[in-house]
């Protein structure tokens, strides 16, 4: 995440508050989702302005930005977005483990409605399956995305595949997954 000076933050916020769509899109297109989330959490950014910014983001960036928000801001934002939009913009663009975390922040009625709007029936089923696990169990932490590599592929290639598919994996989790794939052969990332 980039460090911004107070002047840079003020300049960005002024542009967002002016609501000139082309200027705002230009400003936010180069920002990392964590930086956008940080800006949206500033006290001077009200809900209307946050929703305005989210509507200018592509769905993948919006989903990543939403997950970077603190829980209170995320919850407040979700209360102001229709359930169909939550499904289409956020849930369909998150890995299953993040989608489960997000859905579990909603009340039971909203959970069911959001899931009914998820276009990929398999993804909705995976989310429902994962919701059965407690947060502090392996099932509550896992996703259902599958990553594959050829049996003859070298570990370096397999780790590249993992890294490109799941940006949030830690080196340890990639190592553990690849150790399973390679039947405990030694390798280094």
Would you kindly provide a written description of the structure presented here, covering whatever features stand out?
By secondary structure, the protein is an all-alpha fold. Helices cover 65% and strands 0% of the residues. Helix 3 crosses helix 5, helix 7 (83-90) crosses helix 9 and helix 8 (96-103) packs across helix 10 (121-131). It is globular and about 45 Å long. Mean pLDDT is 78; it is low at 137-145, 168-172 and 181-189.
Keywords:
single chain; 189 residues; mainly alpha; globular; disordered C terminus
Structure class? mainly alpha
* Anisotropy-based shape: globular
Radius of gyration: 19 Å
Low-pLDDT regions: 137-145, 168-172, 181-189
Percentage of β-strand residues: under 5%
């Amino acid at each position: 995440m980039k460090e911004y000076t107070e002047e840079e933050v003020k300049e960005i916020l002024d542009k967002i508050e002016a609501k000139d769509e082309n200027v705002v899109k230009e400003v936010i297109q180069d920002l990392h989702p964590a930086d956008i989330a940080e800006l949206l959490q500033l006290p001077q950014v009200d809900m209307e302005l946050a929703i305005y910014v989210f509507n200018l983001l592509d769905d993948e960036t919006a989903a990543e930005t939403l997950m970077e928000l603190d829980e209170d801001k995320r919850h407040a934002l979700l209360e102001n977005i229709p359930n169909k939009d939550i499904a289409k913009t956020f849930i369909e663009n998150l890995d299953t483990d993040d989608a489960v975390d997000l859905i579990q922040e909603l009340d039971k009625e909203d959970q069911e409605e959001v899931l009914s709007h998820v276009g990929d029936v398999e993804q909705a089923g995976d989310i429902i399956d994962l919701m059965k696990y407690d947060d502090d169990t392996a099932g509550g932490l896992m996703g259902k995305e599958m990553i594959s590599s050829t049996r003859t592929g070298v570990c370096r290639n397999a780790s590249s595949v993992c890294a490109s598919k799941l940006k949030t994996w830690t080196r340890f989790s990639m190592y553990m997954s690849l150790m399973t794939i390679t039947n405990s052969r030694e390798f280094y990332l």
